[in-house]
Design a protein that fits this description.
InterPro entries: CheY-like_superfamily, Sig_transdc_resp-reg_receiver, ST_Response_Regulator. Keywords: Phosphoprotein. It comes from Corchorus olitorius. It is a single chain. By secondary structure, this protein is an alpha/beta fold. It has a domain at about 30-105: 3-Layer(aba) Sandwich (Rossmann fold). Helix content is about 30%, strand content about 20%. It is built from four helices and six strands. The protein has helices at about 20-25, 35-45, 60-65, 85-95; strands spanning about 10, 15, 30, 55, 75, 100-105. A four-stranded parallel β-sheet has the order 4-3-5-6. The protein has a two-stranded antiparallel ribbon with strand order 1-2. Helix 3 runs parallel beside helix 4. The longest helix is centred in the middle third of the chain and has 12 residues, at about 35-45. The protein is globular.
């Protein structure tokens, strides 16, 4: 919620955020086994007019790319059943997939940094 007199907007040099996917044909894949996290991603990206494709594990992401799917961005959960994000990313890179792959997780990690 914005305070009195505050505003928020995203201006792009050649248009608005809503125009971005139409001009760039930006494609994205969300790989996550948690339906709530998938819904959150979906809601956030819809603000920019994006509709990500969603699969629930790394194996399905690999199969999708093997079938010819190409994406500008892949959000890859680290911890999933069937095939986790690290294994899927390794396979995708070995296949020559050069999409930007961003690793995400909502789980606890033994490697937490405490400040």
């Amino acid at each position: 919620m914005l305070g009195k007199g505050a505003s928020s907007s995203m201006n792009m040099a050649d248009g608005s955020a809503e125009d971005m996917p139409l001009k760039n044909n930006f494609t994205m894949l969300v790989v996550d086994d948690d339906p709530i996290i998938c819904k959150v991603h979906d809601m956030q990206f819809k603000k920019f007019g994006l509709k990500p494709q969603v699969v629930e594990n790394g194996k399905k992401a690999v199969d999708l790319c093997l079938a010819g799917g190409t994406f500008n961005l892949i959000l890859m959960d680290k911890e999933m059943f069937v095939m986790d994000g690290v294994e899927a990313t390794t396979e995708l890179r070995a296949m020559g997939v050069n999409s930007l792959i961003a690793g995400v997780t909502s789980g606890d990690s033994p490697y937490k940094v405490t400040i």
